[in-house]
Structure formats: C-alpha cells, structure tokens
Amino acid sequence: MNQPPSLQPIYLDANATTPVLEPIATSVMSVMLADFGNPSSAHVTGVKAKRLLEETRALGLEIIGTQSGELLFTSGATEGIQTAVVSAISDYLQSEQLHYDSPVLLYGATEHKAVPNTLIHWNKMLGLNARILEIPVDKVGLLDHNFIAEHAHQAVMICTMAVNNETGVKQDLKLLEDTIRAVNTDVAWLVDCVQALGKVPLNMDTISIDYAPFSGHKLYAPKGVGFLYIRNGRPYTPFIAGGGQESGMRSGTENLPGIAGLKALFEILMSKSALFKSGEQLQQHRLLLVEALNDTFEDVSYHSDPELSVSTTINFSVAYLTNKEVMDLFDAAGIRVSGGSACSAGASSSFVLEAMGLTRWQCENAVRLSFGPADDFEFITNACSAIRCLKPSLQKLYLKNNEKRSAKRVNYIGLTQLECDSQSCWLFVTEDFEAIVYNPIESVIQKLSRIILSQNLTCTAILLKQDSVKQQHARERLLSVLEVSNETNYREIPTCQKWNLKREESEQSLSYVLRFTNGKRIRFAEKAQAESSSHEALFTPRGAGFDLVTEKTGLNKLKPIEINSVEEAKSWLSQFEGVVLDVRDLVEHEASKEHVKALFGMGDSPSFINIPRSRLANELLEKRLNEHTPYLLICRTGTRSKKAQETLIKLGFKHVANLSDGLALV
C-alpha cells in the first residue's frame, strides 16, 4: 500500500526538550536489558550497577569543573530546586548564628517559574515567612546588581540562572558572585544551570555557587533524570527520605537507565566529539536561521542581544501575526517551535519579556526557536529552506510588493473576520479596493493595518461598535498606523453613500446595515438579530456578529458528526461523495496541501478546497457553499473546524463532519 508523502518534521524547540541521541539511547537500552542491577544489591550484578553509577558521578563532577563538590542524582531540575530551597531555609531556621530582622528570598524576574513557585511554597510550609523579592532585569535581560546589593545582607537565599530558557540571555556569574559576596558571604546562592550544560563553560571550583540543578532531557539524555551540584560544606537536608540511597542524601532506588544516559552524555562532552558543534558553528547556525526569518517575514523583532545570549536560542515576534498564527504556519510546514517556555504553555504573555520591558504585542506574541548543539549544518539549512517556503503564500496576504492591484491578487475582497482576545473585528473590501472596518480592536490593529497596506486598499470608513474610549483609541491607533505609512490608505466618506451603508441607532443598540444591489445585506451590530422568521442570524463565536439573509426558517437540529481517523474520513467521504474543506489560513493550507491531499487520497480532485474560517462568512454570503453537499472540515487540531461546523449546522447544512483531533494527530 502506498503511503502518503509526509512532511519531515524539523524540530526547533530544543529548549523544551531534545530527542535522545542514538549512542545515549543505546546505553540506556543496554542497562535496561542487560546491566539492570540495583546499585544497593550486594551481588555482582548490583556491584556492576553501583560502579556505573559512581563512574557517572565522577564524570559529571569533572564536566562541571569540581573536585570537591557533591553531585546528587535527581529526577530532574525541579527536584533539584526543591532540595536546594528546603536545605537553605532549614539551615537558616536551625542556625544559632544567622538571624535577620527582615529575612528575604531573592530570585531573578526572568527565572523559570519552578524557582519562585518553590520559594513561595517552602517559605510558607517551613514557616520562614520571609519577604520574597523579585530582582529586576534591564531591557536586555541582565539582573539589577544594585538591587541585589541593596537586599543581599538580609537574604536567606538568592536564586539566579546561568542561561534563560526563553531568550537565551547569559548572566555574568563572576560579576554576580562579586556583587553577592561583597555583601553576604553566608547567603545560599542557587544558579539554575539547566540551559547552560553543553553551551557555556562551567567551573564550579572557581566560583561560590552553592547549588546548581541540571536536567538530562535538555541535552539529549532521557526525561526523568538530572543532577544537583552542592558546594562542599554547604547545608543539605534530604528532600526524599526512605531507604538511604545516595549516601542518605536522596532515598529511592536510583534511575540507573537514566543515569546511564547521563554517563553517555558526559562521555560525549568529555571527548569533544564532533557530534556537538563548536561555538563558532552554532553562531553560524543562528545567523542562517535569522536570515531565513528576515527573508520570509517583514517587521521581525528579536528580543535578546546575540552578544549576550547563547547562539541556540532565538526569541522573536512578527508585527502583524500572533504567535499562534506563526506556530500554525510553521507546524503546517513541518517546523516545530514554541511560544515561550514549555512549562508556561497556556500563558497569555511572556513574563520574561514583560520583565525586560518589551511591548505588549511582543510579550504576548513571542515565538521561541531553539536548536541543539548536535544539530548539524544540513539540518539547519533544511530548516531555513522550510521557513522560506512560506514566503510565496505570505506574499499573497501580508507582504508588500509592487504588483499592480487587481481583484485576482487582492485576497480580501468581501468579508473577513479577525478574531483575538474573545472579540471579532470585521473587514469588508469592495471590488474597487475600498475597505470598511467594523469594531476595531487593539489586538488586531497590527494585522488589520498590514492587510490594508499590503493589499494597497483604501480604508473609507471605520465603524465603531460602541462610542467608547477603548473603541476610539483603537480607531486612532489604526489611523496613525495608516498615516505613518505615508500612503493614502484612509479616506473617510459619508456612510450613507457609495454602498448604501446606513447607520441605525436606538436606545438598545447601534448598528450599520450594508445593502447590496442583489438584495444581500450585512448588518454589523452589537448583537445580530434576525428581522423576521424568514431570516436567520449567524453569530460569531462570542456574540458580535452579522445578519445573513437565508431561505431557512429554523435551525438545523442535526447532531454534529465527529470523525476520529483518516480511514474513517475516507470511508465517510466515499459514502457521501463529500468534499474536504480545509478551514486553515491560506499559508498553512498551501504549506501542506500536497501532503493532506495524499493523506485523503484526493490527488488533484476538486473535492478538496480551502476556505479559511475568517472567510467563511463571505463564502456563505456569496453562496459558494451548498447546504446539501457533505463537507469534512479539517484544521490543525480540530478547534477551528469544530467552530466552523457549529456555524454551518446552525445555517441548515445537513452533512457536516469534523476531523475531531485535526491533522496534528493523523
């Protein structure tokens, strides 16, 4: 059976996790299958396991540059952070010498959330009740040393990081040491080294770092294993008590397969293997990726100084695309990136970029592209090619060019819905390239203005949903962006002219009705309401909407059809002679359309069409969708297609199925 061509995944989210390298995986598997002994067992198999464990410990100490410190195997960096915090606070509470009038716990404003959340938890649970203070950072992400010097004399613990997981910014650890120890020689100092291993030099014997957590899966070892460095003589309280493993410092049977993975990783690092690229090579890889981004997108902002950051992390935003839109585009092209820290997934804004004082747009729409030191030149050039493949489709929608304007080239003729922050803004474009904006909202101004400018439209009216300060501000923001362009992109006309656009106002609502010569009508209103039983309201998902005149008198009560696999989808399409309707944006669609066609066995069939969900209303107005045609709706994860399915069912479409988990899981 012929398999559909697949998009070779290009993984550029190494700061979240990395694949396990083959030599490391081989070592792990060998221990799982052959050398599987318990290091606490007295027989030969146990003795061999113990030797592997101690050899790994010795190598790890050498890798991080210490002959005197302790190396404790953990489940990962989070456990290491817990152990360090509990040890430091417990020691202070038990100390007869140390007692501060107003004890504080300090942490960097851009630390991984595992650090402040751990401080808050154990500060309360152990009864320290210290003030927890956030160390500010400057605009490039470097810690405020004056703030540290001001508060370090009362500090029980100071937590910083070597390399930031979102931006790649490196802290000057020697300078930090000078600042801290000049004020307080006893304070416990934790440095999160998770993103530093294999990327920056580490020499623990030359610096007074007390605790340093590491995690294996950030550098090609398995998940679930890490280690904690503890400076010789510094306080230690076991975080996990029990059978007394790890010399009583961390009970529980050691994760020997994971530790074998660390051993293999340490051996690669020690050998200076060509498997890990040099600093110069990594810098070249970064430059190639930045060039590809600049060639593909316009108005790209980079959020860290490359001179102050590791080469393997690029944090950026595009002025007119949300980070979700960028990630959707990349995903369609087989490129995996993230919107920031994997452990902050779901957050609406990057607290790291907020702390650096970046704009709201940049904080909310940052994209993190990160690669590993084992990614070779061929991999990076393939990634650059995949990124550049998005440009032709982007050119149609957002990129400025000098082509002569034509209805065929302008992709926004008719009605387009722009959604963000649970609100909808509507753009209507005539065949004369004149645009009406209804309900401008701050979060879509960048994208809206980019559409108007790149498509060379003339905005002739900006209609406010309500006469509020927020709406007025959004209108002024849009006007200012259009005026800054030095182009004639705004010319307000009386709303009673040209398209028979009429303002209707009552005590309850304000609406604008746009009437067409063919009898069609759009009503922009705070709440779309049908005027008679022969009309039916089509709502946007969250209330603001437009009236769409249809022939139906009632809503369709059919139960939505959920499709759970490609095979089920093929069977359904064959049975009903259905059409695959891709509701992803044009760039996403074009980036993977050949793959999707092959997936459903469609070839060059006309039964595979693309109507972005933002254009669904327009296609319904133009009657380009047939309510009797069976449609299978698809998108990346099934979310957008589910919403489109709900809309079509409301309008009386009889056979509408949804690929429930989207294309991501097929």
TrEMBL record:
Its EC number is 2.8.1.7. It catalyses: (sulfur carrier)-H + L-cysteine = (sulfur carrier)-SH + L-alanine. It is an enzyme of class 2 (transferase). CDD domains: RHOD (cd00158). GO terms for molecular function: cysteine desulfurase activity; iron-sulfur cluster binding; metal ion binding. Residues 574-663 form the Rhodanese domain. It holds the Pfam family Rhodanese. It comes from the Bacteria. Its cofactor is pyridoxal 5'-phosphate. Keywords: Iron, Iron-sulfur, Metal-binding, Pyridoxal phosphate. Belongs to the class-V pyridoxal-phosphate-dependent aminotransferase family. NifS/IscS subfamily. This is cysteine desulfurase.
